[in-house]
């Protein structure tokens, strides 16, 4: 019985560590996505296309 409880605790700790890693990486992934979207937005605004005027903010 002690062995089964130990296994449950070990799996719980493993799941907790993996969840903490995903939470920590979330910040970096969001920043990377935001930077890429900003880059695409700047490329769209800066690209001269005849007949289309996009007002800059």
What's the SSE blueprint?
Blueprint: H1 2-46
Core attributes:
rod-shaped, mainly alpha
Could you describe the 3D structure shown?
The protein is mainly alpha-helical and about 55 residues long. The chain has a domain at about 20-45. Helices cover about 80% and strands about 0% of the residues. It contains one helix and no strands. The longest helix is centred in the middle third of the chain and has 45 residues, at about 1-45. The chain is rod-shaped, with a radius of gyration of 24 Å. The mean pLDDT is about 85.
Beta-sheet strand percentage? under 5%
**Roughly how many Å is the radius of gyration?**
24 Å
**H/E series, N to C?**
H
Largest sheet: none
Helix content: over 70%
Total count of helical runs of at least 4 residues: 1
Could you tell me how far the N terminus lies from the C terminus, measured between alpha carbons in angstroms?
67 Å
Structural shape: rod-shaped
Poorly predicted runs: none
What's the overall average pLDDT, rounded?
A: 84
SS class: mainly alpha
Oligomer: single chain
């Amino acid at each position: 019985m002690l062995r089964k409880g130990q296994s449950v605790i070990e799996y719980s700790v493993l799941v907790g560590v993996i969840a903490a890693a995903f939470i920590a990486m979330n910040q970096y992934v969001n920043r990377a996505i935001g930077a890429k979207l900003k880059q695409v937005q700047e490329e769209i605004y800066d690209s001269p296309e005849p007949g289309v005027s996009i007002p800059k903010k």
